[in-house]
Amino acid sequence: MFKFRHLHGHLRGGYTALELAAVVLIIMVLTLGSLAGVRHIGYREPVEQNARRLAQAFAGARSYAIANNSTFTVRIDLARRNFWIDETSPAGATIQPKVTRPELLDPTVAVEQFIYGALVNESPQHSVRFFADGSSDDVSIVLRRAEENPADEKDVSTVRLYGPTGQSKVFHGRRLTPALSPL
Length: 183
Prior knowledge:
- By secondary structure, the protein is α+β, with helices and mostly antiparallel strands.
- The protein contains 1 helix and 12 strands, in the order ββαββββββββββ.
- The chain has one helix at 17-68; strands at 3-5, 11-13, 71-77, 82-88, 94-96, 103-104, 109-116, 119-120, 125-130, 139-145, 156-162, 167-172.
- The strands form 3 sheets. Strands 3, 4, 5, 6 and 9 form a 5-stranded antiparallel sheet that branches. Strands 8-7-10-11-12 form a 5-stranded antiparallel sheet, covered by helices on one side.
- It is elongated.
């Protein structure tokens, strides 16, 4: 235990009530700050999780296309809020439907934009093709919290799919379009 010298030069043991109150106040401020950060991370989680799930579906479709020397397409139905993989012709006609079971998108997450190349597509149904050579359509999908302000960047994620390589990357907290995306 630390000993403090009193103003008159006498040694005394322990802490004053003011010193203890200051320590308790500092601990409370640090605890409240960390709880606010944890709550915000949990708040963002559905957007980030859905972005990761779409990127995993893209990686799966690319693997199927290469392994089977065929074209596989990730179908995304925004009206039903689900996505799955079909085997298709290069033009997109279905050969074998629902190679994977449909997965649901979180209802608290909105697809803000679906961009093919540099063209925004407002349709509720989307198809992203993966070809036998590993390439794919060039796509960016911007996801955000459904009830948030669309201009707010903190609760947004972009899934960027690079056409020539068929590789996808998820950018959390960033709204990117193909022309602005780093390679």
